[in-house]
Amino acid sequence: MEANYILVRFGELTTKGKNRKLFTNRLLKNTKEILAEFKQLTYDLQHDRMYIILNGANHDAVCAKLKTVFGIYSFSVAYKMEKELELAKKAVLQIIENNSGKTFKINTKRADKNFPGKSQDINREIATYVFHHTSKELKVDVHHPDILVTVEIRHDAIYVMDNIIKGAGGYPVGVGGKALLMMSGGIDSPVAGYLTLKRGVDIECVHFAAPPYTNELAREKVLDLVDKLRHFTHGKIKVHIVNFTKLQLAVYDHCDESYAMTVMRRMMYRISEKIALKNHCLALVNGESIGQVASQTLNSMQVINEVVKLPVLRPVLCLDKLEIIDIATKIDTYEISIRPHEDCCTIFTPKAPATKPKSYKAEAFEAEFDFETLVNECVDTVEEIIIDDNYKKNDDIF
Ligand code: ATP
Ligand code: MG
Fold this sequence. Notes:
The chain has 398 residues and is of the alpha/beta class. It has helices spanning 20-34, 59-66, 85-98, 119-133, 188-198, 216-229, 245-254, 257-278, 298-305, 321-330, 334-337, 344-347, 359-366, 371-380, and strands at 5-9, 42-45, 49-53, 74-81, 103-110, 139-140, 147-153, 158-161, 165-166, 178-182, 202-209, 237-243, 284-285, 312-313, 383-387.
């Protein structure tokens, strides 16, 4: 007997009242796109759960991908069968034989009250069958079993389910609109993107490059990071690459060194906001964390933030660097982030940036030159790349 179903539970979604249909439909759509490579799968969306029908697909491979879909609370590999207890017994035995655990518990739920026998009696009958047929040394443990097998007797069929696997949690990506993530090659911004996606907000990314000061490897690093993040979406993320060189050099020509960082970041914010508005993004997101560097004191943030109207989300604002690194490791971006390639910010870092900049001074420097034309040029010449399943299968982008 082969596992033929995966049962998916929504968790947090159950509290969402009338928005529920919107959520479950989006979850179905995202799941289908993440699992697109398994062409034989079919789906059955119900009120309180979703079934993925395997039709012969390898359940371990499907489960590995399913773990990154936000909005899924938990899931279980399941065997669906006709309503005959003998079949259920065989499925339970198979699950226990395939598992390395030594203790088990059977939990029967009888949704169809017409099915003969009490749940407790069915549990006992199946356990007896397992003990007679198993090749393993087994014990029943009702409190902390290694293997928990659930037998659900529903009106249409019996479902026998393997251990519950924890899902990614959060909300389905897209139900919360879309935001523009400012993506450097560092550790923090991919984590900020992941946390935003977890709340159901879809993302596009903007990256500021300063060729020839930054090279192709820096660009590849950013795209590799986006490639990791896309597994937490519906499989696809758009990246906007801004050529920032001319503007950055102009900032360094016309601003006092202590204000170059502040003015440069004000320019980044302005350009990001314009790109966001053009692409229906409702907020900016970045990886700023209070006090990490000179541009991330509250004073700096205030002077930098005031040039935009869109809300700026900072999901890692209050996390310690070690907490951010923990998440980066979990989502597999850390190893990419620590590759040693130059970011435009690190190349042009002034020696002593102001930690308490003043708005009027930043404005005075900005009045000395026609920055607006260069800002618009950056927006007009932005390069758009879609990172999806074809990434690195197609050499054109490098
Ligand atoms: P990270 O680890 O994300 O690079 P950081 O601690 O190095 O962050 P900064 O370099 O000061 O901090 O950047 C703060 C935030 O500004 C980043 O998290 C990112 O959101 C944004 N940012 C910085 N450089 C770039 C860039 N070249 N392109 C796009 N966004 C950037
Ligand atoms: Mg950085």
